[in-house]
Design brief:
This protein is α/β, with parallel strands linked by helices and about 270 residues long. The protein has helices at about 45-50, 65-80, 100, 105-115, 130-135, 155-160, 165-180, 195-200, 215, 220-225, 230-235, 245-255, and strands at about 5-10, 15, 25-30, 30-35, 60-65, 85, 120-125, 140-145, 185, 210, 265. α8 (about 195-200) links the parallel β9 and β10. The chain is globular. The two termini are about 35 Å apart. The model has no long low-confidence stretch (mean pLDDT about 95). Bound molecules: iron/sulfur cluster. Iron/sulfur cluster binds near residues 34, 41 and 43. One of its GO terms (molecular function) is iron-sulfur cluster binding.
């Protein structure tokens, strides 16, 4: 799918948080829109996507000059108290266009100079490893969370065909962990996976976050229902992996390799 790229200077880059992100003072989105176009993405139901006029996943707006705004805004925010940042809540900070635009990297450079009290980096792109040098400079106040919902490429292609392949995400987890950075694998939302998946993850990370549509879409599963995701499970004979109890099933499987304190459930896996 071709992604339409546009460029715009943001009026503001640090946004006060609420709801799911209430443990943070600010969210930081280097882009608007997302080329990964996940079928279950809850942002599809939010005004940012609904009022754009083009289908979610087909467009990305680059926040040009974002680092200049961030420099001013973080200095001001730090004068008022602790600053905890979630990057990103309504896009992936490592869009394919980030290879050239380097907006996320420029924001990280500002954050290295003006350290927040905590920075959570949420992505599903292996491009995140490009910035390990910067993460290492603030490693005592950062967590990197890499989404890997399954170990089955056939399943990924059903739900997130435009997202990076799973093998590249496993390598990114490994590389990040090898550098001693705090990293977690986010099975969020958990998708049907093989019996080997917990063992594969346990060989790389010591922390996983488990989430499903019913805990994690911000509406008890209603947003996901409106996206008609259940149909994808039915069409592919995977109904037993859809429902409010699915995280329990996944939890039992993960417990074979991880202890309870290494498995964080839904929102707790994303807290500062
Ligand atoms: S990567 Fe995140 S923001 Fe982008 S489409 Fe997927 S769930 Fe939505």
């Amino acid at each position: 799918m071709q992604t339409k790229i546009s460029y715009k200077e943001p009026r503001r880059i640090l946004h006060p948080t609420s709801g799911f992100l209430k443990g943070y003072t600010h969210s930081l989105n280097p882009y608007v829109g997302c080329a990964f176009a996940c079928s279950y993405c809850y942002v599809r139901q939010m005004p940012i996507a609904l009022f754009h006029g083009q289908e979610w996943g087909t467009w990305v707006e680059v926040k040009q000059g974002a680092e200049m705004r961030l420099r001013k805004e973080i200095q001001k925010a730090k004068q008022k108290g602790p600053v905890t940042i979630f990057m990103s809540s309504s896009t992936d900070p490592y869009q394919p266009v980030e290879h050239q635009a380097q907006i996320t990297r420029s924001l990280l450079e500002v954050l290295v100079e003006n350290r927040p009290d905590f920075l959570f980096v949420q992505t599903r792109s292996p491009l995140v490893t490009r910035d390990i040098d910067l993460f290492s400079k603030i490693k005592d106040r950062i967590r990197i969370s890499i989404t890997i919902e399954t170990d089955l490429e056939s399943v990924r292609k059903i739900f997130t065909p435009a997202a990076p392949p799973l093998a590249s995400r496993l390598r990114a987890l490994q590389k990040t962990a090898d550098h001693g950075l705090p990293v977690q694998a986010a099975l969020a939302p958990v998708l049907p996976f093989s019996e080997r998946f917990p063992e594969i993850l346990a060989n790389i990370v010591n922390r996983v976050c488990l989430d499903d549509y019913f805990m994690g879409d911000g509406s008890g599963g209603k947003r996901t229902e409106r996206l008609n995701i259940k149909k994808r499970y039915e069409e592919n004979g995977m109904e037993e992996w859809y429902g409010p109890g699915i995280h329990q099933k996944a939890l039992e499987l993960l417990r074979k390799e991880f202890s309870d304190h290494q498995i964080l459930i839904s929102q707790e896996g994303f807290l500062p």
